[in-house]
Amino acid sequence: MKNLEQHLSEYAKYHRDQRNIYTHYVGIPLIVFSVFCLLSKPAFLVSVPILGDMTISPALFVWAIGNAFYIKLDVKLGIVMTLITGAMVYFAQPIAQYDVGGWLAVSLGIFVGGWILQFIGHHFEGKKPAFVDDIMGLAIGPLFVLAELSFELGLRSALKDEIERRSGPIKQ
Fold first, then answer.
1. Whole-angstrom Cα distance, residue 33 to residue 114?
2. How far apart are CA 152 and CA 60, in angstroms?
3. Considering the entire predicted model, what is its pTM?
4. 54: β partners
5. Model pLDDT for residues 26-77, shown as the tens digit of each residue
6. Would you say 46 and 137 are in contact if contact means Cβ atoms under 8 Å apart?
7. How far is CA 18 from its chain centroid?
8. CB 77 within 8 A of CB 70
9. pLDDT at 172
């Protein structure tokens, strides 16, 4: 299995234009949120000892599996991703309670909007999205956004340096 630096460096090769990265800051969270909205139906209310009533849906399983992967790659980024995507799953629940037409319209509208931003960014980049060559790009994209945001906050400079060493600098 590839490590964090390998995954992010491979993904970064398709994302060296700062404008593309900026569109990803909005586009990828929109796509992830819309997927959680779509996967929040069907939902089942179950009673869990100590926790009480919980809503279980496919979104919860995808959230758990995805974040186990992120935590395995990097504990700190994985924990932050777990909290962010946990909030997304939580806020997807009310959308899943809309009637089918409303749920699909909102979820697919957010999904399409996110992808439009992605393709605008890749127009700036002049390269196809990473997932075209490696389907893992769909899983690494959210972690890439979190890593890039951490770099902008002055965090994880060694990781940033390693990605730039492998993938080249970001074009402003």
1. 10
2. 30
3. 0.93
4. 46
5. 999 999 999 999 999 998 889 988 888 888 999 999 999 999 999 999 999 9
6. no
7. 18
8. yes
9. 80
Q: Pick the closest to residue 19 from 115, 95, 126, 105 (CA basis).
A: 126
**Do 144 and 24 form a contact (C-beta atoms < 8 A)?**
yes
How far, in Å, CA of 108 to CA of 94, rounded?
Answer: 15
- pLDDT tier for residue 3 given thresholds of 50, 70 and 90: very high
Closest CA relative to residue 25, chosen from 108, 128, 148, 151:
148
> Using an 8 Å Cβ cutoff, are 92 and 33 in contact?
yes
Tens digit of each residue's pLDDT (9 = 90 or more) over 134-150: 788 899 999 999 999 99
Separation in Å, CA 24 to CA 65, 83, 116, 133, 169: 23, 19, 10, 18, 17
45: Cβ contacts below 8 Å, ≥ 6 apart: 53, 54, 55, 56
Report the C-alpha gap between 98 and 103 in whole angstroms.
Answer: 5
| Unique residue bearing structure tokens 């586009």 | 27
DSSP letters for the chain: ---HHHHHHHHHTT--BHHHHHHHHHHHHHHHHHHHHHHT-S-EEEEETTTEEEEE-HHHHHHHHHHHHHHHH-HHHHHHHHHHHHHHHHHHHHHHTS-HHHHHHHHHHHHHHHHHHHHHHHHHHTS--GGGT-TTHHHHHHHHHHHHHHHHTT--HHHHHHHHHHH-PPB-
